[in-house]
Specification:
Length: 87
């Protein structure tokens, strides 16, 4: 699984959690699925047009131990296959 796919999956999970529990995300929850929003955000992060200030992106960065900078996020997303420890 590529890092972009891994990050997108984590991001979608964060959107599910936020859609259910955070009133700040009610507007988005009524209009787009977590999976589609995650896909659009990853594409926007990759091409440099996204705003990274949302709670879901912060949480996904923390889960993947990515520095919370555009440069670090884009570098992570650009890597090919991610290493997954078998343990």
């Amino acid at each position: 699984m590529s890092n972009a796919s891994l990050f997108e999956s984590t991001l979608a999970g964060e959107y599910v959690r936020l859609f259910e529990s955070d009133p700040d995300y009610a507007y988005s929850a009524a209009r787009i699925s977590p999976d589609l929003l995650a896909s659009k955000m990853v594409a926007s992060l990759q091409n440099g047009t996204a705003n990274k200030d949302g709670k879901a992106i912060k949480a996904a960065c923390k889960k993947h131990n990515i520095n919370y900078t555009y440069k670090a996020i884009r570098s992570f997303l650009a890597t090919g296959e991610s290493y997954v420890c078998p343990l």
